[in-house]
Structures are given as structure tokens and as C-alpha cells.
Amino acid sequence: MKNRKLFGTLCGIAAAVCYGTNPLGALKLYGEGMDTASVLFYRFGLAWCIITAILLFRKESTKVTWREFGVLTLLGLLFSASSLTLYLSFHKMAAGVASTILFTYPVMTAVIMTFFFKEKNNWATWGSIVLAMVGVALLCWDGNGNALNTLGVILVLISALSYALYIIVVDRGKLQMSSFKINFYVLFYCTLTMYVFSLVSRTPIQLPPTPTSWFYVGWLAFVPAIFALVLMVYAAKNVGSTTTAILGALEPLTAVLIGILIFGEAFSVRLAFGIALILSAVVVISLKKTDKPSNT
Known about the structure:
By secondary structure, this protein is mainly α. It has helices spanning about 1-20, 20-30, 35-60, 65-90, 95-100, 105-115, 125-140, 150-170, 180-200, 210-240, 240-245, 250-260, 270-290. The model is unreliable at about 290-295 (pLDDT under 50).
């Protein structure tokens, strides 16, 4: 049991760091002239091809039951929604701020588990909600009373809710299959969703224009897609959904550092305080909230 928890914890930490590198690839590709639909289509499409090759090498069947198909479909739609809204928000605000607001998902996870799955409700849950809300408020307004783009904030909050639900479904879905097989379906749905979005938004899928663009497409496919998704599944199965969300504390820190060091995004005392409050909300939950891993 101890080895299982240690393995799950390490997977959760690694998944958070990997997912936190999303702004690195996304902003670089935006700078190369690519739109959101194209960036995500190639990110997920390449990742799906790689996962398919892995399954063929492992000689692992992709057959599923109807119940499993339903769960996998839900996972694919949730992760598509989370990724699309997050990447769209990068056009509206600094990527580091967006990634920090995204980190309200552990609080959302805890609240959903409390009210819908009868996990014990305590002061830690409510205290974390207050801390997270104050932290997000600090990130949303600057010292002159100017607000961040409202649509950008809404997009990130939708992304956070979708990701919280994704983690819960992975934990509670009882899928008796490998992480690679799960993500074969998840990535397929993500690729299909981005293609449909490109049609609806009338933004045709465009090829990456330069070798540098292809490098960052590969980065997004491997690091915050394949590595993060596979590791997150192992984490959720071994330490549970709430703990997996808590371990994601390294995700916004990674994104903020990338934004500051690579893209020169502004950083202030107010932003630092807001980030600290959001991370404190997660720490409060981690100190008081226990979470049983699934039996899968």
C-alpha cells in the first residue's frame, strides 16, 4: 500500500509539472501565427498517433464494453472542453495568471466529492473555498481597479470545472484497462472535437509553418498531453481524485515561472498574494481532507 501511494504521489507531481508547460508550447505556436483550433488539433492528433503505436507495440486490444465506451466518451468530451477553454483564455490574459486561476480545480473537486459523493464535509472545504475565491479576485483586478478580461476568466473557470470532473470520472469510472487504452479514446475524442470546432468557428486547420512550430507541436503532444494524461490516470487510480488534484500545486507554479522567465509576463506583489491564497486553499484541503484511492 505504501509503495502504491508513493507511486501515485510521484505520478501526480510529474503530471502537474508536465501539464504546467502548456503555455510554453501554446504561446510559441500562437507567435508563429497558428490559431487555437490548429494548435490543439495537431497536439491531440499527434499524441493519438503515438498512443496508437504504443498499443500496437503492446498488442493491446482497443475493444471496450458499452459501459466503458460511455465513460470514455465522457472523459474525452470533458478533457476537450478543459483544453479548448484554457487555450482560448491565453488570448485574453497572461498565461501564468490563467493557469493559476485554473488551479481552482482542486477546490471544485473537493466540493463536488463532498456534495455528490458524500465525502465528509468539514471546515477545510469551506475555508479553502473562501481562500480560493479571494485569491482569484486578487488575480482578476489590478491595483487601479481594472478587471481582467471577463470572458477570459469565465473560460478558465469552465476549464477548471471540466478538469475537476475529468479527474473524478477517472477515479470513479472503474475502468479496468491500461492508462494507454484510456487515453487512446480520450485523445481521439479531443482530436475530433478540435476538428469540429475548427469547422464551427470557420478557422480551417493550418499546417505548422516552420520547423520550430513542429517542435512545439511535438512538445505539446508528448509533455502536457501524453505524459500528463498517462501519469494523471496512474495518480488518480493510486491516491484518489482529491489527492491528485492537490498534487497539482506544481502546475500553476510551473506555468507562472514559464510566463515570467520566457515570455516576460508581469509579476507583482498582488499577483504573488493571489497565487499564495489559491495554493493555501489547496494546502488546507490536503491537511484535513482524506481521500481513498479507487480499487482499479
